Every structure is written in structure tokens, then in C-alpha cells.
Amino acid sequence: MHVKAVGEGFIRPDIYEKVQGKAKYPDDIEMEGMLYAGVKRSTIPYGRVLKTNIDEIRQMEGVICVIDYTMIPGAKCHGVILKDIPILVQDIVKRVGDCILLIVAKDKVSLKKALDQVEVEYDVYQGVFTIEDALKEGAPILGDKSNILYDIKVKTGDIEAGFKEADYIAENCYHTQMTDHAFLQTETAVAHYDDEGVLTVHVATQYPHYDREEVARCLNIQEDEVKIINETIGGAFGGREDINPQCHAALATFITKKPVKVVYSREESTISRSKRHPMEMFYKTGVKKDGKLCALKVRIYGDTGAYASWGMNVLRKAAIHATGPYVIPNVDIEAKAVYTNNPYCGAMRGFGAAQVPLAYESQMDILAEKLTMHPLKFRYMNAFDVGSQTATGQKLKSSIGIKKCIEKIADVNQMEL
Amino acid sequence: MIINGKSYTKKIDPLLRLIDFIRDEAKLKGTKEGCGEGECGACTVIIDGRAVNSCLVLAASVNGKEITTIEGVSQGKLHPIQEAFIEVGAVQCGYCTPGMILSTKALLDKNIDATEEEIKESISGNLCRCTGYQIMIEGIKKAQDKLKKR
Fold first, then answer.
1. How confident is the model at residue A187 (pLDDT cuts 50, 70, 90)?
2. Contact A18 B94 (CB under 8 A)
3. Which of A11, A228, A322, B38 fits a 20 to 30 Å CA distance from A139?
4. What's the mean per-residue pLDDT of chain A?
């Protein structure tokens, strides 16, 4: 069978329902006798929960039950790699937005009233909010043994010899900011027991199989007793990789035996979700008079926030991509993911490869100016080609399109390379 | 109020938002909530010919008015705007799509010859976080052609 797809314009099968408003997102699900659940989140970035008025909330009209960490039958934490994000905190909160109490109510209005009435008494600790502070001696330790979640080195050639060869050097520091995915459909989950008694969670997720594992761990039941149904996804961009309302909806159904819906407001969505890592990138790049790059020293620090999420993978990717698509024989790169009390950072479009271009491409422009060479020509001279070797030692064998791409740009601009 | 030609008479909480009436009382789930504060336009409906964020309108204040939601756009068969969006592929996650189509309809119902600038302005209150704006503008131009040929 031969199917031609590349270069063909296909009509996507889900488009008919979407243009008619018939596509079913999790919040469009209604069930008989459905309850509403929501989470009271920490309003301080670092401290210990001393007490809450849980007993008072339990007595409120319309409140079905109030769940704290002691009522979780299984694992108290979740996470894509390290299991470090509390489903409900035991005592320590490490960021604004940590989950403290899960309230189940008969309707949305009662739920909102109950959430507004929750009072939490904290012992407030001094948190760390910059990479610099997190790496200072005596800083509070937010990770396992230190504030460094991950540390990777990429080295090739002889960095000192490389810089000795250089006729021009550019040395600069670049910063990128934290970014939120801000997908339009806020996190929502509906949990219920299906006809066969399987705990079912309807959600919009990037990882239904991870979700099933996390829900089963949290409830201390087998994975085949949990079903995750992925409804239409209203944007994700990496922001639906970490668990958000899945365990809470499942836990509420597990305890009440009723269908339960959890819907995030835009504010809760923004506070709770992972972010793109802000990075500090120190770049020193050396070039010879003939325009050939000869040395690159890079130090990258990513603010990974309060929890691990994909922090190690993101900083690994930043390090691997730190040279850009350019051949550099002498390289010394280090990248670190650093814990702070900021929102936790994880996957977002590019996964660490999106921050470093600001640094390496700015360096290219600055060096081209020093060389009085056209920046496009300078890039062309140093660009990867078939047979090039990356800083990580990978020999490139195919699909290296950058030179062709630059040739096309030069052609359009009637420029000699 | 009248939604998509159907009359609804109901005693309601004076603080109930129009979007909640549409989604929870009329059970029309095509109107989406993205922000609840009038920033994203996912909840756009047409009230007496104007595109409006239904999260910023109290249901009680539209007593007697005519409202069109996405379900009222394609009655029986697809509207030319919907056909055009399908043909050019102006849809990704789909969450902004109903609002985008209603903003477009409000514009083209009034001004079928809208310029590209006017098209851009008419959908400037509708966020698409998948950032597919260019192809939507193409779709809207295609819808203009289709509507003119009708």
C-alpha cells in the first residue's frame, strides 16, 4: 500500500466537530449526581503548615467532605521523574500554589464558598527566589541534599588552546524569562466509576499512561482498576505533561463513590502549572580572523523552581544545543538546574532548546561585526554539514539542512556567500 | 431571552453570568470559558448582532434579547464560514474556534467586504494560543468569497 502524505493537504478529521462547537472537552461532561471538588492552595512560597480550620469547613452547608493528606490511601506525591510534588502537602509548602486541602461540595457555589473560608496558619520561612541566592552557602536546601537538581558537562577539544587561537572573543551574559503555556482550555477532570466499577478519569492530557500510573499509585490500587480517557485537548504545549487535577478528581471519587468534577479557573491554572525555565546563560565565544569559530565556553543556570518535573531533561537539552548548529572544535559547557521557591518549571515547546538560541545567535552577530563579515556568510562558514561532529561527539550523517537554508536566503537577497 | 431562535424563560440568580446560563441552563456546551475576565474571547456569542464576551455579561441583563451561539451558526448544514475554516484548516486545538467563528460572523453579517485590517480588528479580541491567526484570516477571506457567491 502506498499512501502519499507529505506535501498533501489533508482535512483533519476532528475539524468538523470543532467548527460546530461539538468537540467534547472535559468541562463539557455532565453526570447525574456529580459533585464539584477544588483545592485550597498555599499563598506563601515557603513554610510549614501549622494548622487549618478543616473541622469548620467540614460543617459548612453543601460541603460533602474535606480531604487532607492523611486520607490519601497510597503515594502522597507524584512527578514525571522524581516523585516530589505533593498531591496534598503533609506540612512543608515550597511554592505558591502547593495543594493543602481538597474540598468536595454538592455544587460550584458551595465549593467556592468553602474554598474562600479556608484558613491556613503557617510558619513562614525565608525562601530563595533567584539562582544566585539558591547557590549561596547557607541557603535553605530545597532539593534532596542541595539546590542543584541536575548538573551536566559537555567538553570536547582543548578549551584553553582554543581561546589562545582566537583573534576575537565575545563574552556576554543572556537572560530569558519564565513563560506560561496559557493554553485556552484550563485544566479540568471528571472522575467516576464506570459500569464495571473501574475508576475512570476524563481529562485532557499529554500522558494518559503516566496519569493512570499516578492515579493508581495515589489510590493504592492496580493500574487495571484505573481508566484514563483523553478528551479533546484545548492546547497543551508541554503544560499538560505534569499531573494537575487527575489525582484530586480520582481521590474525591474514590472517597465519595460519586462522579466528581474539578475545574481550574484561569488564575488557578496559571498559579499551579509548570513553566518554561528562565535561564541565565554566560557565553564566551572565540573566532579566528578567517571567520572560523575556535572555542566556546558556556555556563547555563536554569531556575527549575520548587519541584523537579522535567528540569534535568530541559537543562540537558540546553547544554546539548548550546553550540547552536555550528562546528566548534574546542568546547566547555556546563548546565545546571537549580531549585528555588518559584513556580516549578518543566516542559514547554522546545524543552530547553528554545532558550539557548538567544545566546548563541547573539554571539554570532556580535562576532560577525568584529570580523566585519556579513552575519549570514559568517554563519554559513561555520554551519553544520554532513560529516560534521557536534560537541557531544555525534557524527552528523543526514538531514542537515542549515547550509541549504542559508543558500536559499542568500539567493533571495542576491548575495554572495 | 432567545438563544438560537429558542425562547428561554427562567427565574435566575441576578449574579448569574450569561456564559453559565448558556452552558449550565441551556446546556449548550459549544461556548467555551478560557479566562472568565474578557481577555480571551473563547466565550464570544452574538447579542443583537454584536460579538460579546458572554463571561462579562449578566444573564439577567439580556432579558428579551436575541443571542446566537456556535450551535446556532450551523442549523442543519455548515455555515460558509465553517466550511471555509475546514477547507483552509484554520483549526488546531479548537478551543478558540467557536468564538472566532462568531466574531467573524458578526463582522461579515454587517460588512461582507471587510478589508484585511477590519478582519484583524474584528478577531483582535479572540486569542488563539496555538497561534494560527494567519490561516484564520485566509479562512475569513475565503468565507467572504463563499458568502458573496451565495
1. very high
2. yes
3. A322
4. 97
pLDDT for A2 equals: 66
Residue of chain A nearest B44, judged by CA positions:
A21
DSSP character at residue B67: E
B117 contact A CB<8A: no
Domain count, chain B: 2
A9 touches chain B (CB under 8 A): yes
Alpha-carbon B92 to chain mean position: 17
- A-chain CB neighbours of B85 within 8 Å are 15, 19
Asked whether the beta carbons of residue B91 and residue A19 sit closer than 8 angstroms, the reply is yes
Partner-chain residue, chosen from A28, A184, A232, that has the shortest CB–CB distance to B129 = A184
Residue B36 has its nearest CB partner, among A11, A236, A266, at A266
ipTM exceeding the 0.95 mark: yes
According to DSSP, the residues that pair with B44 across neighbouring strands are: B53
Which amino acid belongs to residue A172?
Answer: N
Contacts of B44 in chain A (CB under 8 A): none
In A, which residues are within 8 Å of B86 by CB distance? 11, 15-16, 19
Mean residue pLDDT of chain B comes to: 97
Shared-domain flag, residues B10 and B45 = yes
Task: Specify the CATH superfamily of domain A28-124+181-263.
Answer: Aldehyde oxidase/xanthine dehydrogenase, a/b hammerhead (3.90.1170.50)
